[in-house]
Specification:
Chain lengths: 420, 86
């Protein structure tokens, strides 16, 4: 056992500081790694396909955003028997994010780094295999690693172990809003004295069991055509395609960034708001508007200062309508460019909102808004939707919104670096 | 029943728990190297022992995971048990 002594120095000055994002790691159905993903996203290339991991012919849902990798080329073999695909993808994203930030947590004080991830159901594929073994052959045939490999906070644990992030650690479950909530919780870690936090979500784990669980939400499209299944804000919207993957962000205290001499960053997490919807049937307004307003207030920016919105894009008419109404209330009709690059990946559960955050930071860095695809007949003339081809802009402030099934609403305001 | 040899044990460890990238597991001189130094924690040994129990239709004591700290000690306990059921 290594003897551990808590840090003697007082924590970095805390409350109110805006964490600086210095590294991104992305695994998405349309690209592994930031460079590949960003190129595909600007080109409008979708990663949604007919399911190939198993035969979907007996299932109502036929399409998905799969991430297929050869795990042995990315990770040490010691990790393979103990990890579900979603954890492998999370570890790959964490490696990329830390390497992008040129950060070395092992050289930092013992408790100075932490990790917060969002999750939904954990390692479904691993869990299904081991439960099959348990029920068909007996307990002796179930892997000892089942004890944690299918557990929903496993990504936080594995990333923490691999990168010696012994500080604040947590896992959040708020369905598709989780990717924002995890970054917000990581921000709290920075404000509580951590120098560096990894925040975000990587989720998925497609298998027959997980597909059935997702289908039960009633939010997936049963359209078998990968080009037509997920068409948010289209008159033909019929639900969403789901997918696996997500993104992790390396966030650092501004003092730590200065001390390390890092000059090129992605910007800051400037504001956050989250709300919960009123009870269904109450007739009261959904919580999304309040979440957005809280995030804007937290960032001390007005609606007029927001240059682009990365939307939730549920892909169901009533939910799309509610979101467009909310955006129009806050920004005025057509008052802000809106995009949903998730139309190329599917909705990634705990990973989706953090992929939107990463995409928004890339948009701020490159001063270009990536498009929404598969929308042929826009249903909302009062929505300025960026479609099919990217749109150049003078981008300083981005808003990312997300809604999670069950009533979660989260919004996050991102700001480009001051010098950009 | 034939005794379990170190080469087979190494093969099973690799299959059930992977291999630490900083360890030369295959060079044969690992009999007396502690599992900890080989990069294996108790769960890795538990998973491997479970496989050996299954393959051979034997039961090994749960304490083997903490008692057997090297491949030699693990092989000794396994082979004693295999000798009893032979």
């Amino acid at each position: 056992m290594t003897m551990v002594t808590p840090p003697a120095a007082p924590p970095l000055a805390a409350r109110g500081v805006a964490p600086v994002v210095t590294g991104l790691g992305v695994v998405a159905p349309n690209g592994l790694g930031v460079a590949e993903y960003w190129a595909a996203t600007l080109a409008g290339r979708s990663g949604i396909t007919r399911i190939t991991r198993f035969d979907p012919s007996g299932y109502r849902v036929k399409v998905f955003g799969q991430v297929d990798i050869d795990p042995g080329t990315h990770l040490p073999s010691r990790l393979l028997p103990q990890t579900d695909l979603m954890t492998r993808l999370a570890l790959i994203a964490a490696d990329e994010a830390l390497s992008d930030a040129a950060a070395e947590p092992r050289s930092m004080p013992y408790f100075a780094g932490g990790v917060v991830t969002a999750a939904s159901g954990g390692g479904f594929d691993f869990g299904q295999r081991e439960l099959e073994a348990l029920w068909s052959k007996g307990s002796a045939f179930a892997s000892a690693y089942q004890s944690f490999a299918w557990f929903y906070p496993v990504n936080t644990g594995q990333i923490s172990i691999r990168h010696a992030l012994h500080g604040p650690g947590a896992a959040l479950v708020s369905e598709q809003a989780g990717g924002i909530d995890a970054v917000a919780k990581a921000r709290r870690g920075i404000r509580g004295g951590a120098e560096l936090m990894i925040g975000g979500g990587v989720d998925g784990s497609l298998c027959p069991w997980s597909l059935l669980c997702m289908t039960r939400s009633g939010r997936l499209s049963e359209c078998p055509d990968p080009e037509r299944a997920f068409r948010p804000y289209d008159v033909g919207a019929s639900g969403a395609a789901f997918g696996e993957g997500g993104a992790l962000l390396v966030m650092e205290h501004p003092d730590a960034v200065r001390r390390r001499g890092v000059t090129r960053t992605y910007g800051t997490v400037a504001g956050y708001g989250s709300t919960f919807d009123p009870r269904p049937g109450s007739g009261r307004e959904p919580g999304l508007r309040r979440a957005i307003e809280r995030a804007l207030a937290d960032a001390a920016v007005t609606a007029a200062e927001v240059d682009v919105v990365f939307a939730d894009a549920a892909g169901l008419p009533e939910l799309d309508r509610a979101e467009v109404d909310t955006l129009n209330q806050v920004f005025g009709p057509g008052g802000v460019p809106v995009t949903a690059p998730k139309s190329m990946t599917g909705r990634l559960l705990g990973g989706g909102a953090s992929l939107d955050l990463a995409t928004a930071f890339l948009a701020l860095r490159h001063q270009i808004i990536p498009p929404t695809v598969h929308v042929d007949q826009p249903a909302y003339p009062d929505l300025d939707l960026v479609r099919d081809t990217p749109r150049r802009g003078d981008l300083a402030v981005a808003l990312v919104v997300a809604r999670g099934h069950g009533g979660f609403n989260s919004a996050m305001v991102l700001r480009a670096p001051a010098d950009s | 029943m034939a005794e379990l040899q170190i080469t087979e044990l190494v093969h099973l460890l690799r299959e059930c728990a992977g291999e630490d990238e900083n360890v030369a597991l295959g060079n044969g001189d690992v009999l007396d190297v502690s599992f900890e130094d080989l990069g294996y924690d108790s769960l890795a040994i538990l998973n491997t022992v479970g496989r050996i129990e299954r393959d051979n239709g034997i039961r090994l004591p749960d304490t083997i995971v903490v008692d057997a700290q090297t491949p030699r000690m693990l092989l000794k306990q396994i082979n004693e048990r295999l000798g009893q059921v032979a």
